[in-house]
Amino acid sequence: MGEWADVSSRWKSLKMQIVRKLHRCPFCAYSSVYQNNLTKHVRTHTGEKPFVCALCPFRTSQNSSLKRHMINIHGQVEDVPAQEGFPEFTLHP
């Protein structure tokens, strides 16, 4: 029984470490182990759209959405990864 108590104690300690490392949303009950996921989630509350199209007024909260927009709307494929607010793309024939 002593061995199982030790395993149980270690498991509880591990769970507490995981809980402490969760990144929590200040607006709702959402939490994530990854800071990046929380950043994207918080933008749903704040309305922040830091990724801007250089060719039209389109703005978005996620880099992947800007990349998709550039390909689908402007027919462009990026050569340089887009940075927040400073996308760089070149046209490919």
Automatic annotation (TrEMBL):
Which InterPro entries does its entry note? Zinc_finger/UBP_domain (IPR050688), Znf-C2H2_CTCF (IPR056438), Znf_C2H2_sf (IPR036236), Znf_C2H2_type (IPR013087), Znf_C2H2_ZN142_21/23 (IPR057829)
What range(s) does the C2H2-type domain occupy? Answer: 23-50
A Gene Ontology annotation in the biological process aspect, one of them, is: positive regulation of transcription by RNA polymerase II
Any one Pfam family here would be: zf-C2H2_ZN142
Look up keyword Endoplasmic reticulum and say if it applies: no
Q: Give the subcellular location.
A: Nucleus
Which keywords, in A-to-Z order, does the entry hold?
DNA-binding, Metal-binding, Nucleus, Repeat, Zinc, Zinc-finger
GO MF terms here are: DNA binding; zinc ion binding
Q: Which GO terms describe its cellular component?
A: nucleus
Family, according to the entry, reads as follows: Belongs to the hunchback C2H2-type zinc-finger protein family.
Q: Which protein are we looking at?
A: C2H2-type domain-containing protein
Q: Which species does this protein come from?
A: Petrolisthes manimaculis
Q: What is the phylogenetic placement of the source species in the record?
A: Eukaryota, Metazoa, Ecdysozoa, Arthropoda, Crustacea
